[in-house]
Amino acid sequence: MANSIRVAAAQMTSVNDLATNFATCSRLAKEAASAGAKLLCFPENFSYVGSLQGDSIKIAERLDGPIINKYCSLARESNIWLSLGGFQEKGSDEAHLRNTHVLIDDSGNIKTTYSKMHLFDVDVPGGAVYKESSFTEAGNDIVAVDSPFGRLGLTVCYDLRFPEVYQQLRFHQNAQVLLVPAAFTTVTGQAHWEILLRARAIETQCYVIAAAQAGKHNDKRESYGDTLIIDPWGTIVGRLPDRLSTGIAVADIDFSLIDSVRAKMPISMHRKPIEFWKSV
């Protein structure tokens, strides 16, 4: 493995048109490849954001369907790995889908998938009411995989609020880079997005790549944006000039920095099992 390797994270405003979103993703893939990136991470709902409740169910497909096949071809033609941050995969019945993070290599092969574990059932203060579980099946498995970019830990959006997932990825799955594709609301994004991402990087001593949806998708839905790449010391090393434009953030994964941070502050050696005692 090289001492460092370039990665990119996309920021975009997906709409309710598969072809339009694919055209945006294709342009960003070419831009990332031209910048020397070997991995491009797209945000949650990269391929589609519906205007009406139930729209996502209607377009949901299997992983061997035409939507993912197009993105596999895009990865192969662009000679770049793609992290597809949250795809509407068909669920076990007609009323549900799975919010699935799909990782595709530069030959166009699916390397692994992860289904979002934590579903966004929230009444956002000052915002809308969301109930993702009404149409989405939760995943059960934590997923990490080896790659040219180190060992990648896959998550999706609302998982970010559950640090135990990232602790598992780092200390049990040996992750070096954590992928956090998202479509954060404007209210929660402004309050917590950067803080949570930097905390996950610091407490796991991993790089964090957070590709974000940005801006108004339709009259009812808006995302916060602010795509970030953060190093294991919690320093932001990649960011777009503003949090709403479509584009890519680029940074280098420096494996020697991961090793240095972990050697100088060896929290993996200092961690102790915590037992929770029930009061009698």
TrEMBL record:
Positions in coiled-coil regions: none
Record's keyword annotation contains rRNA-binding: no
Q: Does the keyword Hydrolase apply?
A: yes
Residue limits of the CN hydrolase domain?
A: 5-255
- GO molecular function terms listed in the Swiss-Prot or TrEMBL record: hydrolase activity, acting on carbon-nitrogen (but not peptide) bonds, in linear amides
The alphabetical list of record keywords is:
Hydrolase
According to UniProt, the name of this protein is Hydrolase
Give the source species.
Lithospermum erythrorhizon
What phylogenetic lineage does the species belong to? Eukaryota, Viridiplantae, Streptophyta, Embryophyta, Tracheophyta
